[in-house]
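Q: Start with the shorter request: fold the first protein.
A: Done. Sequence, then structure:
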Amino acid sequence: AATMMPGETPPAPGGTAAAAAACANCGVLQQNINEYVAALIALKQKMIDGDRLLTEYQQKCTDILYFSIKISALRCQVEQMLQKILPLEKCQEELGSLKAELEEKKVCL
């Protein structure tokens, strides 16, 4: 008998029928491999899409946080301005009544 090399398969007994069966099995195996590779590629694409969506989501969360900090700061500024405006409004009222008094005195004079 001829010596076998590692990885070599012995010739199939039964000749062409066995060879045809082996060919059919190879075809099925190749088809399975192709489907498996296609599934892997689809999965990889889904992972890439998922990563992109996650990045967009994180960016939106960062934006929301940034804007809420800005809004809080603006609210504080508005409060401070209101605190300054209230005394000014009082002064304006007092000035109005003083002006009215002066007008009366002017008329009397």
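Q: Next, the second protein, separately.
A: Sequence, then structure:
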Amino acid sequence: MHSVLTRGNAILAYTLSVLAALTFFCFISTVFIDYRTEATMNTVKVVVKNVPDYGVAREKNDLGFLTFDLQTDILFSVLILPGLHLTHLFNWNVKQLFLYLTAEYSTPTNKLNQVVLWDKIILRGENAVLDFKNMNTKYYFWDDGKGLKGNPNVTLTLSWNIIPNAGLLPNIFALGQHAFHFPPEYTTSRV
């Protein structure tokens, strides 16, 4: 005969094994889904100033100001069976999305510069259709020198991290990007 402690240990071990198997099934059932979707972005106003950055030193660095438009439908619905719809990004293994808009450019001192300009967290059940017009950036667009003035190739991309119930934290890039350039002269007007 087994004691109560031995039986309790067997039940707990069996329960944990079943839960681990179910968690792995949850992960493996959604790992091969393509989470990319179309995104359209555009810059409305782009200016650059040369101002002192008091956070690092008192020398002047370039500070870019831009307003942008952003349109994407993250809550894209897919018909699986008659009467059963699966949203494109929100499935049973997705708790929330962390969206962020980045600007990528190169300068003579740095081959790759990436700056996060805007971000948003979308929880399950929230409105996931983004249609922003003439939005200001959420974060400052600082360069660590004078690499923004006249920069001919700055690219905006929308990306997101999927926060799952179980499994990996994938970094997904939207289909579509927008390239723009900064003006060749500094602005003196107030932005």
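Q: Describe the second briefly.
A: Residues 33-180 form one domain. Residues 97 and 187 are 36 Å apart (CA to CA).
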